[in-house]
Amino acid sequence: MTVIDSTPVKPPPVDVCVSVGPAHPRPDGQDRYTISEVAAFTGLRAHTLRWYEQIGLMPHVERSHTGQRLFGNRDLDWLAFVGKLRLTGMPVADMVRFAELVRRGEVTFDERREILQQTRREVVTRIAELQDTLAVLDSKIDFYAGARRASEGA
């Protein structure tokens, strides 16, 4: 008698930090882009992309036989994630550290999660501060609108 293990095989976890969010407008079926194409897709300058590579934030960019940088879709996904990290106010050094952890693989999941949780806490605090600021602005706008109406009616 043959016994077959029917336990479903769970695929390895996907690092969602490089696959979440709307896709960049990419040509169908293409997975190799020049630095100027990536600059156009991302809004980043070519100088910034080269700097990201220099500091280790955008490591291992493939090169053509002539030495021209060739970026792939995963590179574009990574750049989109880096853009989100920049919006959080995360320092570049911390982003580079996160990139190093990603390169080290699954053994760093816990450390990466903690970095993202801390960043999330900081973002939530900033949102609360901005909401408070918005309430103050709304109050002042209402005050000046009311003062204008009162002066026009007098």
Can you walk me through this structure?
This protein has 154 residues and is mainly alpha-helical. Helices cover 60% and strands 3% of the residues. It has helices at residues 35-42, 46-55, 73-88, 92-104, 109-153; strands at 62-63, 69-70. The radius of gyration is 23 Å and the shape is elongated.
- Number of strand elements: 2
Would you tell me the structural class of the helices and strands? Answer: mainly alpha
Low-confidence stretches: none
Largest sheet report: 2 strands, antiparallel
**Spatial order of the strands forming the largest sheet:** 1-2
Task: State which percent range the strand residues make up.
Answer: under 5%
Gyration radius over CA? 23 Å
Helix content: 55-70%
How much is the average pLDDT?
86
Based on CA inertia axes, which overall geometry fits? elongated
Helix and strand sequence? HHEEHHH
- Enumerate how many helices there are, as a single number: 5
Distance between the termini: 99 Å
Write the layout of secondary structure elements.
Elements: H1 35-42, H2 46-55, E1 62-63, E2 69-70, H3 73-88, H4 92-104, H5 109-153
Antiparallel strand pairs: 1-2
Structure, briefly:
The protein has 154 residues and is mainly alpha-helical. The protein is built from five helices and two strands; from the N terminus they run H-H-E-E-H-H-H.
